[in-house]
Design a protein that fits this description.
This protein is of the alpha/beta class. The protein has helices at residues 19-30, 42-45, 61-64, 90-105, 119-126, 133-141, 169-172, 175-191, 218-232, 249-252, 263-273, 309-326, and strands at 8-11, 36-40, 52-54, 69-73, 111-114, 147-152, 155-159, 199-203, 236-241, 257-260, 279-283, 289-292.
């Protein structure tokens, strides 16, 4: 079986959240059209109207998905109570992510899709020392620098700085960070999205992109020099643009991805355009990783109200990216 045709591995994430129920709904909608398997405890996946089907190896998912939701069993020490994370399960949640990375790195899965985790539960129960999924995946893969992309059919955005206070952004926004972010994004657009000559728009940091220095000098001193240097290497870059004019339909038609300077500058437009269908993609890993763009939603877990749209989009995007990277 070629890597591109191998099933997608899904780490179960926090079993007390909405992960188990949206995984069941995703299997109902995708069935054998997009074979995937969950790494987790089968008992945590029962009770959602879908039969968990334990499998011995990843390759069994293609046939098991005809009967139910394929599960590569990984025992958890405690039951899953919706909305109430149990610290006894924290270590197993972390182990499942590592097992997913191992499966995909060995070529047994074409990509890894991660269901949401709850970082506080992992810190409290297992002393988890990483800020989140992305940093832990980079650690497991031995990669120093990765990039977060949020993607939907109408927009791809990449925040250069992510989970830091707004007051800390100017100091964090170094030439090296911006240059690395653009290069990793450019490489991924070619390798995983099939764009031979990606067009990348770069936002400014300040209102009106600094207005010639009147509203800040980051565009003059940091952003523009990086853009010009990378243009000289052959990258198709534009900017720095005033962020308030970058995301209407006409502007979006002129680029394949937007590099933004901070978290909300990137996430507000994509969540406005497609709140339910956005996908979190980690660029720069040696394997494909996607994730739904939402959290564990403890407040609605177990109530049958969770929307699987983003998870389904994450699985579909993972399949498309695997086809691009490895050949259909």
């Amino acid at each position: 079986m070629s890597v591109s045709r191998a099933p997608i591995a899904v780490s179960i994430g926090e079993p007390a959240g909405i992960g188990p129920e949206i995984l069941a709904r995703a299997w109902e909608r995708l069935g054998s059209r997009l074979p995937f398997f969950v790494i987790g405890d089968p008992d945590h996946l029962s009770g959602h109207g879908v039969e968990p089907v334990p499998i011995a190896r990843a390759a069994d998912a293609a046939t098991a998905c005809l009967r139910g939701l394929p599960v590569l069993p990984h025992p958890f020490p405690a039951p899953a109570v919706p909305g109430e994370p149990d610290p006894r399960n924290a270590t197993a949640v972390i182990e499942v992510i590592a097992r997913g990375v191992d499966v995909v790195m060995r070529g047994e899965a074409s990509a890894l899709t991660t269901a949401p985790i709850h970082k506080k539960a992992l810190m409290d129960g297992a002393g988890f020392r990483f800020p989140g999924h992305t940093e832990y995946l980079a650690h497991l893969a031995g990669v120093e620098r990765v990039v977060m992309m949020l993607a939907c059919p109408d927009l791809r955005v990449v925040p250069t700085t992510i989970h830091i206070a707004l007051k800390d952004v100017p100091d964090a926004l170094t030439s090296k960070l911006l240059r690395d972010t653009i290069r990793i994004t450019h490489a991924a657009l070619r390798q995983d999205f099939g764009l031979a000559a990606p067009r990348i728009a770069v936002a400014g940091l300040n209102p009106h992109a600094g207005e010639g220095g009147a509203m800040g000098r980051e565009e003059i001193e940091t952003i523009t020099p990086v853009i010009e240097a990378l243009r000289a290497e052959g990258l198709a870059l534009s900017g720095p643009h005033s962020a308030d004019t970058m995301f209407h339909a006409g502007a979006r038609a002129g680029y394949d991805a937007a590099i933004c300077m901070y978290h909300d500058q990137a996430l507000i437009p994509i969540k406005t355009l497609d709140f339910a269908g956005g996908v979190n993609v980690t660029l720069g890993l040696p394997f494909i990783r996607t994730s739904p763009d939402h959290g564990t939603a403890f407040d609605i877990a177990g109530q049958g109200r969770a929307d699987p749209t983003s998870l389904i989009a994450a699985l579909e995007m993972a399949q498309e990216m695997a086809g691009q990277r490895h050949g259909s």
